[in-house]
Design brief:
It is built from 5 helices and 8 strands; from the N terminus they run βαβαβαβαββββα. The chain is α/β, with parallel strands linked by helices. The protein has one domain: Rossmann fold. Helix 1 runs parallel beside helix 5. The chain binds flavin mononucleotide.
C-alpha cells in the first residue's frame, strides 16, 4: 500500500508540510509506504486549455513534472492534499497543478476508487480554512476519490478536518501567535486522527498492483 501527500505550499518543510508528515507518520506506523511531494520542487506549467483531454486521456504539455507526479498518484492507494490558505483559497501553485490533472478525469476517471483526504492551514484563526478545505474535497470528488474525514466519533474531540491556524490566543489587546503548527494541539490531533482513519480504510481495500 502506498500513500502520497502533495504539498501546495511555496515553503517546503514548513507548517503545511509538517501537517502532512503527521498524517503520513500514522500511515507509516501501519506499514504503508509514504511519500511527501513538495510542489515547490516541481516544474508545473499552466494548463493551456487546448481541450485535447476532452477526447484523449493525454496532456499535450509533456516537458514538465506533471506526468511524473501523475504516475505517483496512480501508484498510490491514498492521496492527501495540503494547502495553506491564500486569500480564502488554495495556493496558485496548487491550483495550477489541479488544473493540469484534467486529462486524468475527462475521457476516463483514472483515480477513481482511491482514498483522498485534504488539510489546510491559515495564519488567522478564521482565515478561510473551511472554504479551502471544501475546494480540495470537491477536487478529490471530481476525480472519483472517496474522501476520508478526520473525525473520531466517540473520542470526545469533535472538529472538522485538520484546519490549522497560527493564531495562539488573545493576550489583552494583542494576538499571541503560535510559533508553528505544532503548537496548535487540536490540529496536531486532527492530523493524527486523519492518518489513523486513512489506515483503517486502506486496511479494508483490496490490494491491486
Ligand atoms: C499571498 C498570501 C495570502 C494569504 N492569505 C491568507 C488568508 O486568506 N487567510 C489567512 O488566514 N492567512 C493567509 N495567509 C497566511 C498563510 O496561510 C500562512 O502564512 C501559512 O502558514 C502558510 O503555510 P506554510 O507555513 O506551509 O507556508 C496568506 C499568505 C500569503 C503569502
Amino acid at each position: 500500500m502506498r500513500a502520497l501527500a502533495i504539498n501546495g505550499s511555496h515553503r517546503k518543510g514548513k507548517n503545511t508540510a509538517k501537517m502532512l508528515r503527521m498524517v503520513l507518520d500514522e500511515l507509516g506506523k501501519g506499514g504503508v509506504q509514504t511519500e511527501l511531494l513538495e510542489l515547490a520542487d516541481m516544474h508545473v506549467e499552466y494548463c493551456n486549455a487546448c481541450n485535447h483531454c476532452l477526447r484523449k486521456t493525454e496532456c499535450t504539455i509533456e516537458d514538465d513534472d506533471v506526468r511524473m507526479i501523475a504516475g505517483k498518484m496512480m501508484e498510490a492507494q491514498a492521496i492527501i492534499l495540503g494547502s495553506p490558505v491564500y486569500f480564502g483559497n488554495v495556493t496558485g501553485r496548487l491550483k495550477a497543478f489541479m488544473d493540469r490533472t484534467r486529462w486524468m478525469h475527462m475521457a476516463e476517471n483514472l483515480l477513481e476508487g482511491k482514498l483522498g483526504a485534504s488539510l489546510t492551514l491559515a495564519g488567522l484563526r478564521n482565515g478561510g480554512q473551511e472554504m479551502t478545505q471544501l475546494i480540495l474535497e470537491r477536487f478529490l470528488q471530481h476525480h472519483g476519490l472517496r474522501v476520508i474525514e478526520a473525525r473520531d466519533p466517540g473520542a470526545g474531540v469533535y472538529n472538522l478536518g485538520p484546519m490549522g491556524t497560527l493564531f495562539g490566543s488573545l493576550d489583552g489587546e494583542a494576538i499571541r501567535w503560535n510559533r508553528g503548527i505544532m503548537e496548535d494541539a487540536l490540529t496536531v490531533r486532527m492530523c493524527r486522527t486523519l492518518g489513523q482513519n486513512l489506515l483503517k480504510h486502506l486496511g479494508a481495500m483490496p490490494v491491486v498492483d
